[in-house]
Amino acid sequence: PGSVSAAFQEYLQHLRLQDFPCGLGSWNKSRLDARRSSLAEEAVPPGEETPEVLLELLRDQHSPWALPPECSPQDQLLREVAVLAPELLHGPRVFQAFKSLRILDKGVEEVDEGLLQFQQLEELVLSANRISRVSSAHLPRTLKILELCCNAVGDLQDLCARPPPELQHLGLGYNRLCGPSQEKHLTVDFWPNLVSLDLSFNSLTDLLGLVSQLSTLQNLRILVLQGNPLALTPTYRGFLLDSLPKLSILDDILIWPEERQQFHGLARQPELIRSEARVVVSIGEMKGLPNPEAFQQLEVGSEGPVITYSYCVTYEF
Asked: Which residues, if any, are the signal sequence (predicted)?
């Protein structure tokens, strides 16, 4: 599927919410008719099943209608709701049942406007897809968690045009963000309630510029920046701890008061921040190359042929 909506429809087909023992059908017709007419539920007529029997068909691991073991608790809950109150998941109503939507590694490339049908959605996880652009106009305003890890996002402009105002976590790890052009989108003007931000393993290089923007996020408590070139600077962690005093966790490591005190005052010395880093690469063993010691040293004046070898080693960061 190319879009989130297409991936969601594929997910619904997998759950089979409209098929026996879920959904509306001859196996529960009288019970649902009684509910619609507000009549007391009578004995189950022949050919129909009680809700208890239908639920057992879902829960018994040996049942042909049971979900695979790897399915999430949400999948199981939706199936049970489709047994007890199938009218709640019928047609467009199904979108109102979702507060969390997780679509991982499904080849999704587009965050389309179909997401706006999820008017109760609070968590959206689209990790390990092929998304390069996210339009905030297609995101439900109710979102509190947006996780886009392992995609191809390289620009935040569209995402920040009108982002969800209550968003508390933004996950952009393992994407293609390059500094310093993206730092301007990481301020309180766009994310007034952000508590957690993951920017790990991108290509951000401007530590001073990024910190000046992040310092406006008064609610920020969790920050992940590891894997960016700026994290290689010698005073990286200390400078961040002193510059962002409200942080509780940096790069998945809890910040203790003693550590913060150790770097007190470092934020007022930006001249200590270097725009370069030294990387030492050690090669333990290389195979398939001629051993120089195998060649005998030519005597002075010898007319024998001279063979030289040269190699080029490339490092990719």
From this structure: none
Task: Look up residue 15 and give its DSSP letter.
Answer: H
- Quick one: pLDDT band at residue 90, thresholds 50, 70, 90? confident
Q: Where are the alpha helices (DSSP H) in 217-317?
A: 236-243, 257-262
**Is residue 224 pLDDT above 80, yes or no?**
yes
What are 48's two structure tokens? 């129909």
Structure tokens at 32: 């649902």
- Structural contact between residues 116 and 20, judged by C-beta atoms closer than 8 angstroms: no
| Separation of first and last alpha carbons in the chain | 32
Which residues, including other chains, have CB under 8 Å from residue 201's CB and lie 6 or more apart? Answer: 173, 174, 175, 226, 227, 228
CA 170 vs. chain centroid, Å, equals 8
CA 209/CA 262 separation, integer angstroms: 23
Neighbouring-strand partners of residue 161: none
Beta strands 249-250 and 253-254 are antiparallel
**Of 174, 167, 171, which Cα lies nearest the Cα of 151?**
174
> What's the rounded Cα separation, in Å, for the pair 230 and 286?
31
Q: What is the pLDDT of residues 179-212, one digit of tens each?
A: 778 889 999 999 999 999 999 999 999 999 999 9
DSSP 102: E
Strands across the sheet with 196-198, in order?
Answer: 100-102, 123-125, 145-147, 169-171, 196-198, 222-224, 249-250, 253-254
Pairing mode, strands 196-198 and 169-171: parallel
Read off φ and ψ for residue 178, nearest 5 degrees: -120, 135
Question: Can you read off the two tokens belonging to residue 77?
Answer: 């809950």
> Exposed, middle or buried, 192 (CB in 10 Å: 0-12/13-18/19+)?
middle
* Secondary structure tally for the chain: helices H, strands E: 7, 8
